[in-house]
From TrEMBL, chain A:
Biased composition (Acidic residues): 248-262
Keyword DNA damage: no
Region feature (Disordered): 241-277
Function noted in UniProt: The proteasome is a multicatalytic proteinase complex which is characterized by its ability to cleave peptides with Arg, Phe, Tyr, Leu, and Glu adjacent to the leaving group at neutral or slightly basic pH.
Species annotation: Gossypium hirsutum (Upland cotton)
Subunit-structure text: The 20S proteasome core is composed of 28 subunits that are arranged in four stacked rings, resulting in a barrel-shaped structure. The two end rings are each formed by seven alpha subunits, and the two central rings are each formed by seven beta subunits.
Protein name per the record: Proteasome subunit alpha type
GO cellular component, one term: proteasome complex
Compartments where located: Cytoplasm; Nucleus
Keyword presence, Nucleus: yes
Record-annotated Proteasome alpha-type subunits domain positions: 6-28
Gene3D superfamilies from the UniProt entry: Glutamine Phosphoribosylpyrophosphate, subunit 1, domain 1 (3.60.20.10)
SMART domains for this protein: Proteasome_A_N (SM00948)
Automatic annotation (TrEMBL), chain B:
Predominant location category: cytoplasm
Functional note: Non-catalytic component of the proteasome.
One GO BP: proteasome-mediated ubiquitin-dependent protein catabolic process
Family per similarity comment: Belongs to the peptidase T1B family.
Subunit (UniProt): Component of the 20S core complex of the 26S proteasome. The 26S proteasome is composed of a core protease (CP), known as the 20S proteasome, capped at one or both ends by the 19S regulatory particle (RP/PA700). The 20S proteasome core is composed of 28 subunits that are arranged in four stacked rings, resulting in a barrel-shaped structure. The two end rings are each formed by seven alpha subunits, and the two central rings are each formed by seven beta subunits. The catalytic chamber with the active sites is on the inside of the barrel.
Protein name: Proteasome subunit beta
Lineage of the organism: Eukaryota, Viridiplantae, Streptophyta, Embryophyta, Tracheophyta
UniProtKB keywords: Cytoplasm, Nucleus, Proteasome
Length: 277, 245
């Protein structure tokens, strides 16, 4: 993308019908460190790569619990993400108080999207520079949504956002058909494998990633480092035994078919112009 | 006396004169509502009387209404406040439907919403002068709750408002059991309503029974209960009385 005369205000259209400021906001998401999400019928797992600025500092918090049944992973301007998480928590609490019932994820996601849209249509505002992977449970099952700075939202079986997310998406595209019926632990393993893809050679250890789970009978919580490291160790050993190109044990028998075409709209390709959906 | 105080017109909303805008006492009122859980859902009964003080003035007041897909609301107390509540709920259900997303507010959610409304009004000293019964079924789960005008709320297997609490609940405590059939439930409710008819002076002999199940709401056509006034004890009630009472 190059600078042009239509990109100064979010309220200026380009002759091609694009809002460049919104597209630049989506670029900010791509620059953030990776976050991935995947879901089965009963569970949703969120994972993210945590890069600390230096050895001396702690890493940024990118996964937030919104309610017992909803959590969110962010990529991009984490400050914007924090603000939106606070909004989401507020909405959930207010709904719970009024109706003594958990806010359906689908509704929260729409409210979030409408909030983002407002910032694309006010001259005195700027779009939020953060992409959110919202994981949640409601009456109709487990859901994973992606909320864009543009104000669009999509439901996914599995998705990845942030830098080097394409590698994770490729992995997820190969394996997503098995996610629906897989077990909770296998889902977490798949999440860790996807995170490893984004690290591109760096060793996967629990100090560089964060994993969170929500599921039927399991409120949203971040897994502690010890548990995560154990799971990594478990499948790394298997991977060493079977050779580097093999996939970890179990899974519902779906060997990697060489079909990279996503059928259910999972993981839209990055080559598509952002506003085309 | 402060002669220098500024005088405000009677209908202004500032200062003590604003009390004329608050509910002070009810005018047209409905009497008890009685409800119980049975095998397939909830049964609720209420008569169709709207009293104007001691006058039994209106005799076709429907005091039970369906709310959304999953709930049934019965009310006693001020009828105009009940109509106001129906307007609030209408808007609530409308917005719920407008999401168009397969989720819907169930009886528990509606009951909680009403509790919040009633309690908030009570805190402003401007109550909705009603006692409400909210029953329903959603996803096979039966729900029956009540809220009063001061926000007291709870759920139970059988609930009643007003005189129903004193006359009907004791009967229900003795005779209610899990998985009542429809016929047994109706018989039990009629027994309660008959006692109320005999003993509650605001009761009228024209009632409706409503049922709500997973399939929806049915409110019966109005009908009356058979009564018997020939008990010998009633024949000459003042016979053994001492004094001028």
């Amino acid at each position: 993308m190059f600078r042009n005369q239509y990109d100064t205000d979010v309220t200026t259209w380009s002759p091609a019908g694009r809002l460049f400021q919104v597209e630049y906001a989506m670029e900010a998401v791509k620059q953030g460190s990776a976050a991935i999400g995947l879901r089965s019928k009963t569970h949703v797992v969120l994972g993210c790569v945590n890069k600390a600025n230096s050895e001396l500092s702690s890493h940024q918090k990118k996964i937030f619990k919104v309610d017992d049944h909803i959590g969110v992973a962010i990529a991009g301007l984490t400050a914007d993400g924090r603000v939106l998480s606070r909004y989401m928590r507020n909405e959930c609490i207010n709904y719970s108080f009024t109706y003594d019932s958990p806010l359906p994820v689908g509704r929260l996601v729409v409210q979030l999207a409408d909030k983002a849209q407002v910032c694309t249509q006010r001259s005195w505002k700027r779009p939020y520079g953060v992409g959110l992977l919202v994981a949640g449970l409601d009456e109709s099952g487990a859901h994973l949504y992606y909320n864009c700075p543009s104000g669009n939202y999509f439901e996914y079986q599995a998705f990845a956002i942030g830098s080097r997310s394409q590698a994770a998406k490729t992995y997820l595209e190969r394996r997503f058909e098995s996610f629906r019926d897989t077990t909770r632990d296998d889902l977490v393993k798949d999440a860790l494998m996807a995170i490893r893809e984004t690290l591109q050679g760096e060793t996967l250890k629990s100090s560089v990633c964060t994993v969170a789970v929500v599921g039927v009978g399991e409120p949203f919580h971040v897994l502690d480092q010890g548990t995560v490291q154990q799971m990594i160790d478990a499948f790394e050993i298997v991977a060493e035994q079977e050779g580097p190109a093999a996939e970890p044990d179990v899974d519902s028998g779906q060997e990697a078919s060489a079909e990279p075409e996503p059928e259910q709209g999972a993981a839209a390709g990055e080559g598509v112009a952002p506003m085309d959906i | 006396m402060n002669f220098m105080a500024s005088k405000q017109p009677e209908n202004s909303l500032l200062g003590p004169e604003s009390d004329s805008q608050r509910t002070l006492y009810p005018y047209v009122t409905g009497t008890s509502v009685v409800a119980l859980k049975y095998k397939d859902g909830i049964l609720m009964a209420a008569d169709m009387g709207g009293s104007y003080g001691s006058t039994l003035r209106y005799k076709s007041v429907e005091r039970m209404k369906p709310i959304g897909k999953h709930s049934l609301l019965g009310a006693s107390g001020e009828i105009s406040d009940f109509q106001e509540i129906l307007r609030y709920l209408d808007e609530l259900i409308l917005y719920d439907n407008m999401w168009d997303d397969g989720n819907s507010l169930g009886p528990k959610e509606v009951h909680n919403y009403l509790t919040r409304v009633m309690y908030n009004r009570r805190n402003k000293f401007n109550p909705l002068w009603n006692s409400l019964v909210l029953g329903g079924v959603k996803n096979g789960q039966k729900y029956l709750g009540t809220v009063s005008m001061i926000g007291v709320n709870f759920e139970d297997n059988h609930v009643a408002t007003g005189f129903g609490n004193h006359l009907a609940r004791p009967i229900l405590r003795q005779e209610w059991h899990e998985n009542l059939s429809f016929e047994d439930g109706v018989r039990l409710l009629e027994k309660c309503m008959r006692v109320l008819l005999y003993r509650d002076r605001s009761a009228v002999n024209k009632l409706q029974i409503a049922k709500i199940t997973e399939d929806g709401v049915t409110i019966s056509q109005p009908y009356s209960l058979k009564t018997y006034w020939e008990f010998s004890a009633f024949e000459n009630p003042a016979q053994g009385a001492i004094g001028s009472w």
